[in-house]
Batch of 2 targets.
Target 1
Amino acid sequence: MLRASAIRKSFGGQEVLRGVELDVAEGEVVCLIGASGSGKSTLLRCLNLLEEVDDGDIFLDDREITDPRVDADEVRRSIGIVFQAYNLFPHLSVLANITLGPVRALGVPRAEARTEALTLLDRVGLAEKADAYPDALSGGQQQRVALARAIAMRPRVLLLDEITSALDPMLVGEVLDVIRGLRADGMTIVMATHEMTFAREVSDRVVFLADGAIEESGPPEQIFTAPSSPRTAEFLARHLR
């Protein structure tokens, strides 16, 4: 469904992505792991066209979306992204945060968008918070609203960028539970995470990035129990203690 071919990206002369190749099948959950600065977040931003690649191509359903003639906003309706910062509109209620995109960008009738939003809020365990405002919610609740808002846009692929890293450890579990549910529903997900145990549990494939390149990729059991790369083994030894 989603394919990145030979992606390169630099900032100020520093090459952050060095020829990354990534294929994501429909319904697959791919977890990106690696140290800070390894290129995980930049790769996600390139996949969503928030960053323009310096070289290489990205395809969605065999359509080259890095073609400069492609409407990036139209592509982003198919590739949702959620960041570690929740980015909710503080002046809008939870319900309004979720319905805004479908109504404005997708042309969904307000009544239909409201019904879908309430269903999503129930799904993420926040049905009673529909009329609340973001500042009245905990970090975990805000992140669950951000997930509901992304899902409301009916994306083909959902990109998650370290969405638990800003949360208190006590709140991480409630967000990860939502992702488990999305996986069970067959959502295609590419997720950068530092939650190694979770990556092992939910992913179909784990991709280890180092210095802007994919060092190793494979099923979670292979990556976590018998990595072929010494760099992968060293990284996991530090993060699975």
Target 2
Amino acid sequence: MFTGLVEAMGRIEAVADEAGGKRLAVRWEGLDAPLAIGESVAVNGCCLSVVATAPERFEVQAGPETLLRTNLGGRKAGDPVNLERSVRVGDRLGGHIVQGHVDATATLRERRREGDWEFLAFDVDPAWTVLMVPKGSIAVDGVSLTLVDVEPAGFSIMLIPHTLAVTTLGTLAPGDRVNVEADVLAKHVQKLLGQVR
């Protein structure tokens, strides 16, 4: 489980094809201690297990389902990624409950500056907007955010200068794909009400 409060913006160092998947080497500058083998790390909001580790560097594997549902399959050496270690019991939950189980990708449709803030609007499969509400929570590339508006096939967010500076969302351009995870509470309510897709 994660909070959606990105700890660092890392960088993909290498991508290698594996049978049915990919292996990604990630640089995490400033990491205070090597990650443990098997530890969970959210990479652009996708929960992955560490399979190799070194100072300020780790490797993860992404299987077919992960590559199908996320933007990690399109990442290449040099690309920035958002990083967060899993939450520990007793930590503050400053964002919202993020599982690291990406539901789908969304595409940036519009970006405009509003003072020091920026407004971003995304297109997404309408099957996911039923789980979104204005002023509700959403994880976009692993960043816990508040929804501004929700449309039948899209949603919008506002980003403060800090988020623009310390996450990959600051460099998004129209047409770029992001990972989206809907609020897990909404998913459970949908199932309990018998509205499962």
